[in-house]
C-alpha cells in the first residue's frame, strides 16, 4: 500500500520501558532523510498550496471526492500530534509551542461550556432548578466537589463523546486543509480516567462495560495519532502542581488522592502508552521540573513519521486517494450515524446512571419548552433570536454532542460567529 504522504522522514525509537519513562536521548543514532519543517524554514513549495477546503461551512459532496486537490495540500507537517499527561503538567504551554513551531492548529480541550451553552449564549445549567436531580447538569466543578455522585457515569461518558467529537474534527481538518493538528489529551487517553474512576468506586461494572462498548465502536474508523508527547511526573509532584495552579475546585477536591493519581499513572502507562506504542511514536519526558521546550520540538523534528515498513503508523496508509477521501466524507457526513451505532451496541447495557426514565425525560422536555426558548427551533432558524429563516439552508454542524465547538479558535481562515 502506498502512503498518501510521499516523503520519508528519519526514525527515532520511542521509549521502550514504561515503568521508568524518561526523555529520549539526543545521542540516539539517527539517519535523517526528511523532517517536519519549522515555520521559519518553510519554502514557497510548502506555503503555495491549494487553499483549504471550507469544511466548516460547506458540505463535501460526492463529486468533490474526485475533483478536490486534497493530496496536494499535504506536506511533512500534515500530522496529528497529542500532548498528554497527568493534571497540571502544563500541557497547554507545550501544545502552543509545538503549534507555533510547526504551523499546526492547536485545538484546546473540550469543556462543559461547549456542552451546555448553545450558539445563542443560553446555558442549560439555568434549567437545573426545574429538573429532577439525575437530569440536572453535572460539569467539572460539580464532579470535583462530589466524584461519588450518581451523575459521574454520565459525566465520564460526556467527556468521551466530546473528545471523540473533537478527534473527528481534527482528522477532518487535516484531510481538508493539509494543516497538522496538535491536541491537549485525546479520546484514546480518555480510558485512563475511566480506569482510575472505576478503581475508586465512582463507576460501576456495567457503566465501565458500557463505556468500553462505546469506545470500541466509536474509535474503530479513525487513525491513531502520529506521535504522543507524554509529560511524566511522580504523584507527589502532580499534587504539588495542582496546588500551585490554584484552582479552588481542584485544591479542595478529594479526587486527587495519592491512590487515585497512582491508579491514573498506572493506567496511562499500561492501558494507554503501552498499547499506543505499537501504532504511534511516543516521546516521554520527566516533567517534574519543566524542561526546555525546544528540546521537545527538536525530538519531534527527528521522528520518522513516514516509515510504513512496520505496523507503526499503518492507520495513515491508504490504498488510494479515494480511500482517504472516503474517511473524510464519513467524518463530514456520518458522525450522527456513528453515534447512533454506539448507542445501539449498548442496548443491553441499560443502567439508571446513564439513561433517564420516561418521567425524567418528560420533565426535561417540559423545562426546555417553558424556560429555554433558544431550543424551540433548529439552530439558525429561531426568529426569537433574530435568525432570518426564509430561503435558508440548514447550517453546517461539526458536532454530534456539543452545542458549540471551540476547535478552530487559532485558525486564520475559520471566522467565529
3D shape? globular
The tally of helices reads 15
The low-confidence parts are 1-34
How many E-type strands?
Answer: 5
Structural class: mainly alpha
- β-sheet strand percentage: 5-15%
Instruction: Give the oligomeric state.
Output: single chain
Our measurement of the CA-to-CA distance between the termini, rounded to an integer number of angstroms, reads 42 Å
Helix content: 25-40%
Query: Which strand order do you get reading across the main beta sheet?
Result: 2-3-1-4-5
Instruction: Return the string of H and E elements.
Output: HHEHEHHHEHHEHHHEHHHH
- What does the largest sheet look like? 5 strands, parallel
Mean pLDDT: 85
Structural summary, described in words:
By secondary structure, the protein is mainly alpha-helical. Helices cover 39% and strands 6% of the residues. It has a 5-stranded parallel sheet, sandwiched between helices.
In short:
With 417 residues, the chain is mainly alpha-helical. Helices cover 39% and strands 6% of the residues.
Topology record:
Blueprint: H1 44-47, H2 64-67, E1 80-84, H3 91-102, E2 105-107, H4 112-116, H5 140-145, H6 152-177, E3 181-184, H7 191-199, H8 205-219, E4 227-232, H9 235-245, H10 248-251, H11 258-276, E5 281-286, H12 293-302, H13 321-333, H14 335-345, H15 358-371
Parallel strand pairs: 1-3, 1-4, 2-3, 4-5
Helix pairs in contact: 3-12, 6-8, 6-13, 7-8, 7-11, 8-14, 9-11
Key terms for this structure?
417 residues, disordered N terminus, single chain, mainly alpha
Amino acid at each position: 500500500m502506498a502512503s498518501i504522504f510521499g516523503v520519508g522522514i528519519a526514525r527515532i525509537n520511542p521509549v521502550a520501558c514504561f515503568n521508568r519513562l524518561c526523555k529520549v536521548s539526543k545521542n540516539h543514532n539517527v539517519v535523517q532523510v526528511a523532517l517536519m519543517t519549522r515555520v521559519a524554514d518553510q519554502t514557497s513549495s510548502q506555503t503555495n498550496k491549494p487553499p483549504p477546503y471550507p469544511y466548516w461551512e460547506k458540505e463535501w459532496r460526492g463529486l468533490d471526492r474526485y475533483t478536490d486537490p486534497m493530496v496536494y495540500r499535504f506536506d511533512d507537517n500534515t500530522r496529528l500530534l497529542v500532548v498528554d499527561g497527568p493534571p497540571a503538567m502544563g500541557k497547554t504551554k507545550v501544545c502552543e509551542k509545538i503549534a507555533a513551531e510547526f504551523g499546526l492548529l492547536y485545538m484546546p480541550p473540550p469543556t462543559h461550556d461547549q456542552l451546555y451553552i448553545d450558539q445563542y449564549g443560553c446555558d442549560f445549567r439555568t434549567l437545573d432548578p426545574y429538573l429532577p436531580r439525575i437530569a440536572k447538569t453535572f460539569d467539572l466543578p460539580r464532579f470535583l466537589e462530589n466524584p461519588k455522585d450518581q451523575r459521574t457515569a454520565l459525566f465520564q461518558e460526556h467527556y468521551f463523546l466530546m473528545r471523540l467529537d473533537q478527534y473527528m474534527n481534527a482528522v477532518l481538518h487535516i484531510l481538508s486543509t493539509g494543516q497538522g493538528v496538535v491536541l491537549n489529551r485525546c479520546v484514546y487517553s480518555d480510558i485512563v480516567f475511566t480506569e482510575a474512576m472505576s478503581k475508586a468506586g465512582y463507576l460501576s461494572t456495567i457503566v465501565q462495560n458500557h463505556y468500553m462498548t462505546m469506545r470500541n465502536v466509536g474509535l474503530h474508523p479513525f487513525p491513531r495519532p502520529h506521535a504522543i508527547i507524554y509529560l511524566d511526573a511522580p504523584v507527589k509532584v502532580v499534587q504539588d502542581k495542582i496546588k500551585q495552579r490554584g484552582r479552588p475546585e481542584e485544591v479542595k477536591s478529594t479526587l486527587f488522592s495519592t491512590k487515585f493519581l497512582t491508579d491514573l499513572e498506572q493506567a496511562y502507562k499500561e492501558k494507554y502508552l503501552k498499547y499506543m506504542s505499537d501504532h504511534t511514536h511516543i516521546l516521554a519526558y520527566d516533567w517534574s521540573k519543566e524542561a526546555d521546550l525546544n528540546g521537545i520540538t527538536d525530538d519531534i523534528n527527528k521522528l520518522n513519521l513516514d516509515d510504513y515498513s512496520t505496523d507503526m503508523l499503518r492507520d495513515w496508509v491508504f490504498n488510494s486517494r479515494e480511500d482517504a477521501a472516503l474517511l473524510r466524507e464519513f467524518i463530514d457526513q456520518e458522525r450522527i450515524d456513528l453515534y447512533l451505532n454506539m448507542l445501539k451496541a449498548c442496548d443491553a447495557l441499560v443502567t439508571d446512571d446513564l439513561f433517564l426514565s420516561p418521567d425524567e425525560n418528560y420533565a426535561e422536555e417540559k423545562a426546555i419548552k417553558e424556560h429555554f426558548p433558544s431550543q424551540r427551533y433548529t439552530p439558525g432558524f429561531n426568529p426569537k433570536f433574530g435568525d432570518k429563516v426564509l430561503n435558508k439552508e440548514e447550517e453546517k454542524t461539526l458536532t454530534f454532542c456539543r452545542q458549540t465547538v471551540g476547535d478552530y479558535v487559532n485558525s486564520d481562515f475559520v471566522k467565529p460567529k
